[in-house]
Design goal:
Layout lengths: L1 H14 L15 H9 L2 H5 L16 H38 L4 H35 L7 H17 L3 H5 L3 H14 L28 E2 L14 E4 L24 E3 H14 L4 E3 L8 E3 L3 E3 L1 H17 L12 E2 L4
Antiparallel strand pairs: 1-7, 2-3, 2-6, 4-5
Length: about 325
């Protein structure tokens, strides 16, 4: 039945005379123009829309569009957060293996995957930053012409620049990689470990080793206020959004300019002393050379750091020696003394 009705309808349309639209000069439209018009829904014809209506148009500033970009950035940030969690687990696993078997081949495999994840995080960060560029252009009332191509081409350009770098250029300044190597080294060594370039062989295009090998890296676990091992360690965690395309290097979207750690009671006493002297709710970071302001609500419990500190103290007790170094609770350079 349905087929018969459809066939009858087609036959009727074929037998009806063509309804060509007249032009302003009195001429009738061509067969091609009539075919194009009949292929469109009537509402589009009446609105005066043509194929050109649907060509990629410049994007202009709108709150709704900027919010969509922010949502996309938040989705990418969540991926980066998950990668960071994986990096933490990889560090912990490598330490456990090192405790059981020094320089085990499994650590090399973990390290390889660790570096691969650092690369992947950077590529995702590039996508995040390009979206940030687009958002800034819209906020500045600039038009984005062919936004899809802009995004794809810009991401491809920055990704190619990053991937063209050597391993040393990618990772020599990575705090995550430095921490990975320092945390493994300290398990079976009392002295500081070799410079990070020791683990990143020189390749064509790399600068001289003399520019980077500035001393060994040491991981310590002492509160910069008490100069004693951490007790109930807290670390300053502040989420700062930025678009790093303006900078010479790309950084993760979750950025903290001051990431110092303290024993809970020691830092809280400093807040209480400041409040007794003035009504200010912030204090200067007590770490020498740091110019950041600390707020009480910025400090978060850091059980992982406390666990590392406790493990280090157990090793000292086991090996029967005491570390008299009053260095700050961060990666330090022996040659700075």
């Amino acid at each position: 039945m349905a087929n018969a009705v459809a066939s009858s309808s087609r036959t009727r349309r074929q037998n009806e005379p063509s309804q060509r639209s007249p032009r302003p000069n009195g001429e009738t439209e061509s067969d091609e123009e009539e075919s194009e018009r009949q292929a469109k829904p009537r509402i589009l014809v009446e609105a005066g829309w043509t194929n050109a209506t649907f060509v990629n148009r410049p994007i202009v500033k709108s709150t709704a569009l900027i919010n969509k970009i922010i949502k996309l950035q938040a989705d990418l940030t969540q991926v980066i957060v998950e990668i960071n969690e994986g990096l933490e687990r990889a560090r912990d696993l490598a330490r456990e293996i090192e405790e059981c078997s020094e320089d085990d081949d499994m650590i090399k495999s973990i390290e390889k995957n660790f570096l691969r994840n650092l690369e992947q995080r950077q590529l995702i960060q590039i996508q995040h930053d390009v979206l940030g560029e687009m958002s800034l252009k819209l906020r500045a009332n600039e038009e984005l012409v062919d936004a899809d191509s802009y995004y794809e081409n810009r991401c491809a350009e920055l990704s190619a620049q990053y991937e063209a770098k050597t391993a040393r250029a990618k990772f020599k300044e990575s705090e995550d990689y430095q921490s990975f190597r320092a945390l493994i080294w300290e398990i079976n060594h009392e002295e500081g470990g070799p410079p990070i370039t020791f683990y990143l062989p020189k390749e064509d295009g790399d600068e001289s080793d003399e520019d980077f090998e500035m001393g060994s890296m040491v991981q310590t676990y002492r509160c910069p206020i008490t100069l004693l091992p951490f007790k109930e360690a807290v670390t300053r965690f502040v989420v700062t959004w930025h678009c790093s395309y303006r900078r010479s290097t790309l950084s993760p979207p979750l950025s903290v300019t001051c990431k110092h750690s303290f024993s809970r009671q020691a830092i809280l006493e400093m807040f209480d002393q400041q409040r007794a002297r003035a009504a200010a709710s912030t204090i200067n970071c007590p770490v020498s050379g740091c110019k950041e302001k600390l707020a009480r609500h910025d400090l978060k419990d850091d059980p992982r750091l406390q666990k590392l500190c406790d493990a280090a103290e157990k090793r000292k007790a086991l090996y029967g020696h005491d570390d008299g170094d009053d260095s700050e609770a961060e990666l330090i350079d022996d040659d700075d003394d």
